[in-house]
Amino acid sequence: MRKFSRILLYSMVILIFIFVITEASIIVFGISAKPKKSDCIIVLGCAVYGNFPSPFFRERLNKAFELYKKDYARYIIVCGAKGAGENISEAEAGKRYLIGKGVLPEFILKEDRSFSTYENLLNVKRIMNRRGFKSAIIVSNMFHLERAYLIAKKLKINASVSGVYVQQYSYEEYKGFIREIMALWYEIFKTLKPF
Asked: Tens of pLDDT along 110-128?
């Protein structure tokens, strides 16, 4: 019984250590993210309330617009299909929002078939190939950046990243940072090839 207790204790210590290290990696990656001038800016999909971007999505779009105005890229690709409770696709809502801020429609491309980060980037890769784009900046919440970057590398997308942190929704941000631990490890295990 004592041996079992020791094994259980050591297992818990190891799990806590992995948890802390992974969380630290996600936080540091998000904070230190720096965009590089590229062919396009990819705005990863997020919820839409009816016809309008949710606060998280809106801040991602604002970040993309800021980068666009600073000439980091000429094109913006907005991602996301139409989910439950959404009147239009996330990509369409993102496009409308950016047009409202003054971006010309011809410089906004839509990827409106995806329901996950992997699908976002897989479909964007196809758009990039058709357009001859060689590089991209991925925009999302800070907690999401490391996993998005890992997927981009897997898909051979030459990408830098830029993140947002929505202060007025800090509780949801904290939940995102915690939830992302399992999502990141899931992506890592998917990437590993069997011997």
From this structure: 999 999 999 999 999 999 9
